Amino acid sequence: MKKSLWNLKSILIHVAVEKPKAVLTSMLVITLGILALAAAPTLFPERFPEFPKLTVDTDPENMLPHDEESRVFHDHMKKELDLNEIVAVGVVNEKNPNGIYNKKSLTNIYKLVEYAKTLEGVKSVDIMAPSMLDNIEQGSLGEVKFDWLLPAPPKTEEEALSLRDKVKRLPFLKGTIFSEDDKAIAIFLPITEKHYSYEIYTQLRDEIQKLGGDDDFHIAGLPVAEDTFGVEMFKQMAISAPLAMLIIFSLMLLFFKKLSMIISPMIVAMVSVISTMGLLVISGNTVHIMSSMIPIFIMPIAVLDAVHILSDFFDSYQKTRDRKKTILHVMDALFAPMLYTSITTIAGFASLALTPNPPVQVFGTFVALGVAFAWIWTILFIPSYIMLLSDKSLANFGLKQSGKIHKVGLIDQFLGWTGHVTYKHPKFILSIVGIISLISFYGISKIVINDNPTRWFAKTHPIRIADKVMNKHLAGTYMGYLSLQPKPEEKVSDEYLDSLVKRAESIFTPEQLQSEAAQNLLKTLKTQIITVGKNSNNRDDLLMKMGDYLEEQIDNASSNEEELWDKVISAFDAYRTELQIFKKPEVLHYMEGLQNHLNQLKTVGKTSSLVEIVKTVHRELFGGKEEYYRIPDNANTVGQSLITYQSSHRPQDLWHFVTPNYQKTNIWVQLKSGNNQDMQEVVDETDRYAKLNPPPMDLEVKWFGLTYINLVWQQEMVTGMLEAFLGSFAIVLLMMVFLFRSFLWGILSMIPLSVTILFIYGTVGLVGKDYDMPVAVLSSLSLGLAVDYAIHFLARSREIYKHTQNWEKAIKEIFSEPARAIFRNVIVVGVGFTPLLLSPLVPYQTVGTLIAGILLSAGFVTLFILPALMTLMKKRLFK
Amino acid sequence: MKFLTMLLLLTLNWNALAISVDEIVQKTNHNSYYRGKDGRAEVKMVIKDSQGRERKRSFTILRLNTGKNKDGKQKFYVYFKRPSDVKKMAFLVWKQINQEDDRWMYFPSLDLVKRIAGADKRTSFVGSDFFYEDVSGRNIDADKHELLETSDNYFVIKNTPKDVVPVEFSYFKMWIHKTSFLPIKSEYYDKAGKLYRTYEVAKVDTIQDKPTVTKAIMKDLNKKTETELSYSKVEYDVGLSEDIFTERYLRNPPVKEMKF
Fold it and tell me: How far is Cα A775 from Cα A753, in angstroms, rounded to an integer?
């Protein structure tokens, strides 16, 4: 093993130094080849139809695999109840004394809805807006009356105001569409596909510009936030990544002065990013929110190793002024640490492939691939590049004279001091670390796991403002759907079949039974029940199939049999109606209780279900009197109320709340916030209620809807990340033990990373930053980077100790060249990511802050803790 | 020469000119809704949603022409048989011509007769894709009629509403069969000019010498739903008396008259 590793090392270094042009050419060919394969089908899809092209996927729902249980359920229920995601437009008037109920505002709303109807992706029949909704009220003769709430723009102010009084009596729409404070009206635009959201959003904003008046318009809802984030994310990538490159570049220029030299790490970074992203496209993976961050992760790692080489070369070139000798020396010292740092980083990211979220898997795999690219090109290209430089460009690179260390300035002063302190006061340093760690543990215990796609935008972003304003006036723009349905039956039970057979005997009157026709019919019927029963999934299915069968029979029956069949049809129809559980008053009362409980929660703006529909119609049947706003006493009245409701302009609305066979129902829970923790609270409260108040029949209570799906993928990601982290921690530890051939050294190398993680996540907890998607992903980066510094530090320490044989002397030497490399790395890469802080997208700010924090912390922890510990344990370490 | 061309044009258009648009519309209206003095039928309704799920309803319908003038007022009595929870629900309509219809609904489980507003005739008929107006007939004076085309079998008439506010369409086209004067197909266009609703006759039977639609399908292209109405046991001139069409009979259905 060792031998082959050395072979690999000598071959690679040999190739790099001896065949620089070949290295350069092959790098160009490979990179451009990948680029061409990825770009050609993207730019000319018609010419390369068989190749995958760049596809962007901005849908956070895809954080879950398509076959994940809650996603399957979500998709299934959305289809069964014909539900669509919603773009919510809020129109607010704070200036008019009548609020939103004035001629101009309502005319604006009317026009905007007419415009929205024409947009691609808007499902116009299901739009919820004043002009699209029905009013149920008492007509002049005490009639039940359905009419459009706003059939045309109001002609007078009085007409506008009359809408206000109408909606007061519609509990169903109050809060959802019409604000309780009369200042706002919402337009809910159901969309056929989520990816239309951004397009619809921009088109609506353009149209709103034309309207005039003193209304404020806001557009909110998860699909808009998510889709807009996707679009802005790509803009950000185009700004942030090059800006980061620029800053890294400037800092390197500051350290190494030589423009021609520092171009090489930039080339390695570029080549690694291009190859990785190219392969991502070629392999047919989509560019998701997660994978869009791949370049930002690869860049610092790619630059890192190159900075080590340059830094060492910079420090020692002037000693010999022989570039080949210097390179060979530098590469010899750095090869093993670089190999191991790369492998550990790869392990850290590759472990993400074990998480349950496909985009995270893709992200981990491809960052790992990018690190591999960065490693091989660093080893091959950086030396080749140095070899190819003209003598002139190298002439004054690096320290002029190795003797004048004192003159070198702040960095060396600081490093010298660090080396000194760690040698003299190791216990003091370690106790400080101990205290910080304790505080960090406390901080970690305070961590709140939470995410919210709306909060991915800065506070001043129109989407954030829309979210705030609309959720202040209205019941909530975040929809959670709570489904109730009986536990699925495996098959129709024998008891039920027996009971049907028995009941069949009493369908006919005794006189009818006298006839042979009736007797024969009964016999056929009984066998049919058993046959169909064996082939049915459940009772409803059985009775539906029996219904079809009976219709067929009556169509072919002779006139004297027809009456008999008709009786059977009616009887079976009644049996099927019995199964319609969501028409039963006791079930509706249960739903009402559950809704009342949820309505008390602060985050719940409103709940709506079949219950409110039934109660409103029932009230109107009894002259609109408030005391009749209640659930009817029997299922038939519920059925008759619902058929009345269906005689409106929008009978289809009913089927968003219950399936036509009344086997599954859905409570709309409107939340005022998209925070996962708020959704979690609602889920917990529902469970608690269901536990304390068992449903009247064996009902399954299950959630779906986008707000809930976000919660699910977050939970899966957090646990997935934790497992992946623990797994890769163990693997890296094993690798370290192997690298240093010592358990103690292995443990030692894991300490900076452990302290860094503690410190970073402790800080996250202490400052109250939510543990969200970017925070979770960064744990793998900290693992990869923090261990790098430790490997470099320990490997070099060991080597230096070998020839000094004295720890005090060794520590001095360590704190010159090797520590300087680490320090430069920390500054270059850490500061390089600060442009992300300027991004209007919060996850980018988070990533920028955390990368900088992780690098700084890992660097300093390495430089302070490791020498301090080594001072204390030197006897055991250097036997 | 000029005279010859004129003559030629006149002969070619003779068929079309033989009957005026108004006559076509009136005849169609009569044949669709006013046949005989009265009529009755058993109706089966199948509502199919976008997922192919079906809901079925059965009812009996009785009709009586009561207008003094030809094709004027009418009275309808609809009695629900299925689904079982709406069984015995009964619905009474006094169709007026230039004013709101009077409608009553009987709710058997509450033993309650309730007036239902009849101003808006373009609401769903018991949850189906048919509107009340499709069942009882749209006032022909509400639209302007144009003959678009005369083919071998059909007159194609374009109907444009005089008042656009209460309706959701901008116009509808009817394909009227030239000999039976039954509309075999209708297409409704929305205010953006897009086709969104179609009516099609699937079956015509000749009953008591009168060609009669016995199966028709209304489709809503936006909702992707459709409703099929099948009429059986259609009879004309049954001899229904007007007192059946009163509130009293909502509670106590006219069993004899509904016995086929």
Answer: 16
